[in-house]
Amino acid sequence: MKTFPDIDRLKATLDQHRPLDPAIVRNLREDLIVRWTYHSNAIEGNTLTLEETRTALEGITIAGKSIREHLEAVNHKNAILLLEDLVQKNEPLTEWTIRSLHQLILKGTNDNDAGRYRTVNVRIAGAEHLPPDQAIVPELMERFISWYRDVATSLHPVERAARVHSDFVKIHPFVDGNGRTGRLLMNLELIKAGYPAAVLTVDRRLAYYTFLDEAHVRNNTDLLIWQMSRITTEAFEPYFHALGLPWEAGISTL
């Protein structure tokens, strides 16, 4: 896809300024955690606003909002912290990795299903794709990890991130929390490869669901990879801003 060289030029520019000042890294990380948590949860129906999410992550209860929504915010932040630890330790993608991230996502909201593959069949509301029978989920997850090890690692990181997310969500291995877990896995791939974490914003939810269905039903991942390229490109902007680099010049060819 033609945007990959453009994205890689952005990364090369950013790499020239690494290591970044610790103050910049800290500020960008704090902002990312809030935005990533807000948008990923909002896509799934959490009603906390961006500012309310920030407040909830500071340990303050928001009047009129459910305990579940507060827990979803805290859980997502903790899952990001685990993801950062996995990157730091250069841990490979395994079923244990996936189950561990999922367990944090559902902690306190659905402990019975947290980290456990589903034992029931499910439907995705509004989607054409029908997830596979629960009986073959463990086998499909084994195949998913084998595909990742044998094929995915040779793909461009942006395509790999999109495909990992898409293929994981297609299996829909858990009763709940698949989308949030899938977006964590997406960014796990980007961060491991030295790219900024990309935030899929809630205003793109409809297109996102449409592109996933296109990938799952018609095996056409072009639109999903295009969306992945767009949000990955945008992920560089906060870094360019913090470094005082001309962002318009950086995206002139995109």
Walk me through what this model shows:
This protein has 254 residues and is an all-alpha fold. It has a single domain, classed as Fic-like fold. Helices cover 63% and strands 0% of the residues. α2 crosses α3, α4 packs parallel to α8 and α7 runs antiparallel to α8. The model has no long low-confidence stretch (mean pLDDT 95).
Outline the fold blueprint.
Elements: H1 3-15, H2 22-43, H3 50-57, H4 67-88, H5 95-105, H6 137-150, H7 157-171, H8 178-192, H9 205-218, H10 222-235, H11 237-243, H12 247-250
CATH class identity: Mainly Alpha
Report the average pLDDT across residues.
95
Contiguous runs where pLDDT drops below 50 for at least 5 residues: none
At the third CATH level, what is the topology name?
Fic-like fold
Q: Which sheet architecture does the biggest sheet show?
A: none
**What structural category characterises the helix and strand content?**
mainly alpha
Instruction: Give the overall shape, derived from the CA principal axes.
Output: globular
